[in-house]
Amino acid sequence: MFIKVKVKPNSKEEKIEKAGEAEYKVSLKERAEAGKANICLINLLAKEFEVSYKKIKIKTPSSRNKIVEINS
User: Fold this and answer.
1) Would you give per-residue pLDDT tens digits along the chain (72 residues)?
2) Surface-to-core class of residue 54, CB atoms within 10 Å of its CB (0-12 exposed, 13-18 middle, 19+ buried)
3) 61 in helix, strand or coil?
């Protein structure tokens, strides 16, 4: 399954909001340096979709508008 995720790094709180059928807005506490925000995003999505973090891949890691693949 592919989803679109708009990421807001360096936020005060971490949260996931559904913006459409396969679209999400995610706020992260981590800064967008050295992949820290991407790691945090993967962990949050793993909890949300109840899958292992190893089953989540970010197709566009350097963009704030990410395409994420989740395998079950």
Assistant:
1) 999 999 999 999 999 999 999 999 999 999 999 999 999 999 999 999 999 999 999 999 999 999 999 997
2) exposed
3) coil
